[in-house]
Design a protein that fits this description.
Helicase, Ruva Protein, domain 3; two-stranded antiparallel sheet
Length: 296
């Protein structure tokens, strides 16, 4: 695939744009493992973000019922169309994924497609641009377009943060946010030599199995995420200081101390030691406060 990628880039005089994080995966074995991990069937609607010139898109199209390939770079579209011209089940969308209404996109595709596809969930498979990995992941999770699974190539450090457990240096707000929506798993490591051009960092493939229902029950999801953000806002601070200094709450330090005591959390703990269940209890305790004492 490496030679084929170079030939296509030369044929269409494509200059890769560093600002868009363009690093094309050229290892057939890695592509195969990514697609195998996604467990794609003919009833699946697959969304690919950043298809580039379409090398992985071709393999997705062979297995999926429908592929929606979202590519921001208009200069890649001619090459992408030529590389995929034999497939009738691929829609190429020349847009910034962050501006796409994913839920509407999936609904529109299902309305014009076979009955089998309408009843199945969505899978996202992508070699994500590393500079906007987190916003893309959170967009898909928060918009809830019926996603069953996401299989993503990400920077190694980001993958470690997503999959991190409480107590470690990698565990943070991103870990909690993603794990509220999905169960993460690191599938394989990918060295720089598998890409054109080679990135300056190592990569990993992660699988996010999206929950039908979140693992915790919340009284107010916004307050939950405010609580998580505040708890990690000053990592070296104790929980009581991080929360009281965050500016997120209209509560005195003593009131926050009492809330922590009520849920069995030591005020001297740091945010990185709390499980998602503890964050949920803390947020629910905050949510139970009277409105005039609580939040912005």
């Amino acid at each position: 695939m490496r030679a084929n990628t170079k030939e296509i880039l030369q044929k269409f005089n494509i200059k890769l744009t560093k600002s868009l994080g363009q690093n094309f995966l050229t290892d057939d074995n890695i592509v195969g493992k990514i697609i195998d991990t996604a467990e794609i069937a003919k009833t699946d609607l697959v969304i690919e973000v950043g298809p580039g010139i379409g090398n992985m898109t071709r393999e997705l199209a062979k297995r999926a019922g429908k592929v929606a390939a979202i590519e921001i770079d208009k200069h890649l579209i001619p090459a992408l169309k030529e590389n995929l011209n034999e497939f009738t089940n691929v829609d190429i969308i020349n847009e910034d994924v962050l501006n796409v209404d994913i839920k509407r996109l999936t609904e529109d595709i299902r309305q014009t497609y076979d009955t089998e596809l309408k009843n199945d969930k969505v899978k996202v498979v992508a070699n994500l641009p590393y500079y906007i990995t987190t916003p893309i992941i959170m967009k898909f999770l928060e918009e809830d377009p019926g996603i069953d699974m996401m299989v993503l190539m990400v920077q190694k450090e980001v993958g470690e943060r997503i999959a991190a457990k409480p107590g470690g240096k990698d565990y943070g707000a991103l870990s909690v946010a993603v794990q509220y929506y999905a169960k993460p798993e690191t599938v394989l490591k990918v060295p720089p030599g598998c890409f054109i051009p080679q990135p300056e960092v190592d990569s990993v493939v992660i699988r996010l199995k999206v929950f039908d229902q979140p693992p915790v029950k919340l009284l107010n999801k916004d307050i939950f995420f405010k609580t998580v953000k505040a708890s990690f806002g000053q990592r070296r601070k104790t929980l009581i200081n991080a929360l009281s200094n965050s500016g997120q709450f209209h509560l005195s330090k003593e009131e926050i101390k009492q809330i922590l005591e009520s849920i069995g959390v030591d005020e001297k703990q740091r945010g990185e030691t709390l499980t998602i269940e503890q964050f949920a209890r803390l947020a629910n305790a905050f949510s139970g406060q009277k409105r005039n004492q609580g939040f912005d």
